[in-house]
Amino acid sequence: MVAVAPGEPFRATSARLQAAGVVHHAWVLRLWARWRGLDRLVRSGDYRFEQPLSPIEVLALLRSPTAALHRVTIPEGSTLEQIAVILANAGFGGADQFLCLAHDPAFLLSVDVPASGLDGYLFPDTYAFAWSTLPERILSAMVDRFREQTAVLQALRLDAGMSEEDMVVLGSIIEKEAGVAEDRAMVSAVFHNRLHLGMPLQSDPTALYGRDIHGTPSAADMTVDSPYNTYLHPGLPPGPICNPGLASLQAALMPAKVPYLYFVARKDGTHAFSRTLEEHNRAVAYFQRH
User: What Å distances lie between residue 9 and 15, 40, 61, 245, 251, CA to CA?
Assistant: First the structure.
């Protein structure tokens, strides 16, 4: 991959191309570009070269409106709707195009994703696409990245006796609940312990999923009869509530060995964990005051 920054001198671009092995002699490329008046027509972006090329071939690519790759970053914990907006704002198409495709049963089948949808399977990462890349290729690439990154977890998942879908669903809840990395395994333990005892998960983010509401849910939010609302429905929700990163997926498979059933957020983003409801209520009252 060779990056061409907006407005950078062609001398810098040609030197980088030589260092990457794309051309043998940067000075030959510069002379040819200057003679043809092409050194000022290079488009910025990221370019992928599979083999060395002639100066003519290199300049044709650098001037192409479709050859440059443009980067877009998908943060961990983003939902499908948020990803559609990120991709649209980056110039890869309208958000509606991505959302329509993401709910197309034929497309979901083609990428081997559960009928619940693409949420959970669009791996958070930095991607590079040409402007001309079709929405289905972009979403497929994100699902492919999910498969590549989670391959290292498959043996662990089988040992844990969890399906891939359950791993992703629980990982998505952990992603939304754990404010700091060191809390992930503990949050996972609380949910595993609750599932084992048949207790509802009572996860705040599940009560808000799909409702375009952010922050802490109100008492009324927790009574909304959504199938994702784990205050009302026992067990895991019917699908992921966001797209978790690898660490949260791993935490879903490797909960800490602790007896906790409750947690409450501190103001610094960490959590206090409790074994009993009485301990939990005391912790809630304390952190409401401090």
Answer: 10, 9, 17, 38, 47
Which pLDDT belongs to residue 215? 65
CA neighbours closer than 13 Å in the CB half-sphere of residue 239: 16
> pTM, whole model, 2 decimals?
0.82
Q: How far apart (Å, rounded) are the C-alpha atoms in residues 255 and 162?
A: 13
**70-151 fold:** Dna Ligase; domain 1 (3.30.1490)
Superfamily of the domain at 2-67: Endolytic murein transglycosylase (3.30.1490.480)
Round to whole Å and give the CA distance between 145 and 147. 5
Number of residues in the chain: 290
C-alpha atoms less than 13 angstroms from C-alpha of 107 in its C-beta half-sphere = 19
User: Domains of the chain: which residue ranges?
Assistant: 2-67, 70-151, 162-289
Q: What is the pLDDT of residue 247?
A: 97
pLDDT score of 175 more than 90: yes
**Structure-block tokens of residue 178:** 């754990």
